[in-house]
């Protein structure tokens, strides 16, 4: 076997994360799939459900308040940004309320 083939065992790819990109190495066999579905592969690399991954990146690692405003719209206030995926997923599951909608956080005093 040639050296080229050994070198192509894995490939470095960049995937989107809040505030930037993270480099991952993926097996060469996954490259085609990565080209077709970057989000799917990225979510898998980070071990997150696809929908969660998309929202985590789009919202820059912040969770949007789950309350509805008086106008019947989803409250746009978000939690702190840049949360790590595990924190983010925990808060997303639990449901985040901003200070306007009764959530108490760092600004309780
Ligand atoms: Zn709110």
Overall description:
The protein is an alpha+beta fold and 109 residues long. The chain folds into two domains: 1-58, no CATH class; 60-109, no CATH class. 35% of the residues lie in helices and 15% in strands. It has five helices and two strands. It has a two-stranded antiparallel ribbon. Helix 3 packs across helix 4. The model has no long low-confidence stretch (mean pLDDT 90). It binds zinc ion. Zinc ion (ZN) binds next to loops. The site of zinc ion has 7 residues, from loops.
Question: Secondary structure elements and their pairing?
Answer:
Blueprint: H1 3-7, E1 10-17, E2 20-27, H2 31-36, H3 38-45, H4 50-58, H5 85-94
Helix pairs in contact: 3-4
Zinc ion binds near residues 65, 77, 100 and 101.
Beta-strand percent range: 5-15%
Major sheet: arrangement of strands: 1-2
Topology as H/E string? HEEHHHH
Q: Mind telling me the C-alpha Rg?
A: 19 Å
How many helices? The count is 5
User: Which structural category fits the helices and strands?
Assistant: alpha+beta
- From the N-terminal CA to the C-terminal CA, the straight-line distance is 67 Å
Mean pLDDT value: 90
Helix content: 25-40%
User: Could you give the count of β-strands?
Assistant: 2
Q: Low-confidence runs (pLDDT<50, min 5 residues)?
A: none
Global morphology: elongated
How is the main sheet built? 2 strands, antiparallel
Number of domains: 2
What binds here, in terms of ligands, is: zinc ion
